Amino acid sequence: MKKPETGRYYSVRLIRSNMKLNIYGELFPVAPELAHEYVMATIDVKERKVKLFLDKTQVDEFNYKLQ
Length: 67
Fold this sequence. Notes:
Blueprint lengths: L7 E7 L5 E4 L2 E4 L8 E7 L4 E6 L2 E7 L4
Antiparallel strand pairs: 1-4, 2-3, 4-5, 5-6
């Protein structure tokens, strides 16, 4: 099966006390202020980025390569 080249995937995640965002087994460090908060992670396939939102505010961004 061919990997997608465009599109977005959305995932709601709870940031635990270890302050790591877990996206399908890959861990990303986040700010301590996000501990115990639910965040929305948007994976943009074309841009190869994970954008992290708290409520409607973007709070972080990471490079991401679809595996």
